[in-house]
User: Fold this.
Amino acid sequence: MKNVFFQLPAEKREKIVRACLAEFGAHDFEKAALDRIVELAGISKGGLYEYISSKEELYLFIVELSYTRLYEYLHASLEREGKPLPKDLTERFAVVSRAAIDFYVEHREMIGIIARTAHLDEGNLAARTRAIFDEHFASIFDSAEESTLAFPKARLVELMKWILIKTRSDFLHEISMGTAIPTVVSRYIEEWDFILAIMRKGIYLERRS
Assistant:
């Protein structure tokens, strides 16, 4: 984003951001339209280009914003608990998945954006969105214990990232179908409990009771 964007009055800047969140949250990158963004934001297309160099730059800004808000929320939630993160990988995922669902419910457009990054064709844009995700993800999971694991931690983490894509997609699908929020939350937690129960029995050097 160009510096002039950050010099805008906060209200106008936030209106543009909300328009971008709505558009990129509802459409994959290729189908997202700058025309709809400027209409919703109440600015001209030429005005938008005063703030951005390209659609790709705008998209990456919104992806970074969405991940930053999510992981700030997660860190704040964990700090409020007043307990250190579990060292165990599966227990850490259990704690984080429960904290994340509240953000999902409150910020559906951002989760839509994050989930839709998985639809990007391989290339520079997809690589840059993965780098954004990896940096934020590492802030929570890099310090998890690995000495008890029967498989390389890096490969297990990649598996969990893949599962994250599925659970986020399931969440968005349930919401789009009009399923009641308590039901969506319950199904999300049940799915993670099931996934983590399987992993607890299969990824450690010694089976745990």
Q: What stands out?
A: Residues 1-53 form a domain with the Arc Repressor Mutant, subunit A fold (CATH 1.10.10). The chain has a mean pLDDT of 92. The first helix runs from residue 3 to 6. The CA atoms of residues 79 and 85 lie 9 Å apart.
